Each structure stands twice: as structure tokens, then as C-alpha cells.
């Protein structure tokens, strides 16, 4: 599956955004008040925008934080959608609400690509438009099943399975996958020695 560079960046951004939700956090990262929210304040929203090089971010406030959390929840619904039609409906509503305005642009050393958000869009509309269109690309390609949640029992992070044969089961083979493989190996060894 050939994915353009800007679409891949938007997919990475939407996955990271969905994984900031408290319900996406593994239990081992819980706080005394429950699972931690990766967007627990405006400072965390600024950090997210900086980490993902989101252009045109001006002053952010609590209203922006609430709007981004709402967009995050709607993206989580796309990952949980039972079929492409449901996923498409969710993406259509999200992108339409963002006031999508496709524009070709080249900036910051990147070749020509499409921005789907209006020039002065809020950060929530920026994310809804660009990331929504990246998810639309996956759905149009007939690859909605690539939008997954980690199968590790104590995880549940979102990820996009870009493996050739769509066989990825864990958000990270180095953490969740390796941990479960080691646990299975130890269980087999224990059973064999009993």
C-alpha cells in the first residue's frame, strides 16, 4: 500500500492523538484519579502541536483543548467502527464540520502536498481536516481493517497496521508484542518442566 508522505504524517498524528485519551492508556500508567490524559492541559496541547509540527498554531486556550478532545473522541469512534460504511460516515461528518478547504502547498522543505484545513483554522479543525482525510484515504483504499487497537490485554492503543499482510497485532512489537511473546515462552517452559 503506497501512502503519500503527508498522509503518513497525518496517520501518525491521529494515532498519537487517539492514544492520548485516558481510555487508551495502559493500566500501568494510571494515576490516583484513574488513567492519565495525555492532553491534561493547554501546555500538553502545545507540546502535542510542537511534536507533530502542526503549522499555524497561534494562542491556545481551554476552548481549543476541549475542541481537540472532542475531535480525539470522534477519531476513536472511527478506529472502533465495525465496517467501512460506518467509518466513512464518521469521517465525513468530522471533515465537513472542520470546513475543509483543500490547498496545494510546499513549505518547510516538504514537496507539494495538500492541506485540507482553512488557512486560519483552529487546531481542532486543522486536525479534523488533515487527519480525517488521511483516514478517508485508508477507507477509500478498502483498508479500514488496518485501523486497529493493540491486542495486548493491558494496552488497547490505536495503530495503523501498515504491514504487507495486515498481520500486526500489537501497537509496538518491542513493547507489547515482545512482552506477550516472553510471557508465552515462560509459560510454555514452566508447563514443560512441570
Automatic annotation (TrEMBL):
Top-level taxon: Bacteria
SUPFAM superfamilies associated with the record: Jann2411-like
Pfam families named among the record's database cross-references: ABATE, zf-CGNR
Domain Zinc finger CGNR: 146-189
Name this protein carries in UniProt: Zinc finger CGNR domain-containing protein
Organism, as annotated: Streptomyces violaceoruber
